[in-house]
Specification:
Blueprint (H helix, E strand, L loop, with lengths): L4 E3 L8 H5 L6 H7 L11 E2 L8 E10 L5 H7 L6 E6 L11 H9 L4 E4 L6 H4 L6 E3 L13 E3 L3 E3 L2 E3 L4 E5 L2 E5 L4 H23 L6 H10 L11
Parallel strand pairs: 1-7, 3-4, 4-5, 5-6
Antiparallel strand pairs: 2-6, 3-7, 3-10, 8-9, 10-11
């Protein structure tokens, strides 16, 4: 039985121009158009220097045994330019999953970034390395290489389902996952939202933002407004 220890070599991929279109849209704007249910947990954060624009790419998924990177090594051999390697490590925090040597090889193959639900190491070398790393932290403790695991299967990373070929977008705020089949609709909505958000920001900066919605919402929710001091 190969379930739990298998590698799928192919993925359904979105058009590259569609992926690239998310490069300069804030992850928060995209997430808001997806009803705010697409963001990977904040424990997984950017560990390296922010670049010019978002990390964007397509998911190459890895389901690993906690603290083990054998299947991650296999995934490095499968990288296509523009891939983001997303690893389900079952939230283990005891062992790093990758360091400088593996990262250098991945960069040579055109990797777009990494998202781990576990730690990394060699942060001093990788911080300015030009490849975005999202991880839960750092530890010098290295991983085991025993398996089992799977590649290019649906995984859960940071509380979000990730399918191979989904579009991954990361910026200093964190990482979001855009299902491949929804990407065109999300892009159209995110572009409109970004324009509206920029207009809201300008109004806020100039001091004439519309704030009457707050009292209307409180009234709808039944909040009592008392024009007095709290009785002592």
């Amino acid at each position: 039985m190969s379930v739990g220890f298998r590698v799928y070599t192919k993925r359904n991929l979105p058009p590259q121009e569609l992926v690239e279109a998310f490069r300069h849209i804030p992850a928060s704007n995209i997430a808001d158009t997806m009803n705010r249910l697409c963001a990977i947990h904040s424990d997984i954060r950017l560990m390296t220097k922010p670049g010019d624009g978002n990390m964007v790419g397509v998911a190459l998924t890895v389901k690993a045994r906690p603290g083990d990177n054998l299947m991650l090594h296999k995934a490095l051999n499968m990288i296509e330019p523009g891939d983001v390697i997303v690893v389900s490590n079952e939230g283990d925090r005891s062992q790093s999953l990758m360091g400088e040597v593996m990262a250098a090889y991945a960069k040579s193959r055109g990797v777009a970034g990494f998202v781990f639900d576990g730690p990394m190491r060699d942060i001093d070398s990788l911080y300015d390395g030009g490849v975005p790393f999202y991880a839960t932290g750092t530890t010098p403790g290295g991983p085991f290489k025993e398996g089992p695991g799977e590649i290019n299967v649906p995984i859960a990373c940071g509380g979000i389902m990730v399918n191979p070929g989904d579009i991954i977008v990361g910026d200093p705020d964190g990482v979001i996952v855009i299902p491949r089949q929804d990407a065109e609709r999300v892009l159209e909505a995110a572009r409109k939202f970004m324009e509206q958000d920029q207009n809201k920001l300008k109004a806020a900066q100039e001091g004439h933002a519309k704030r009457d919605w707050v009292d209307k919402k409180l009234e709808e929710k039944g909040c009592e407004i008392i024009d007095d001091v709290y009785p002592a």
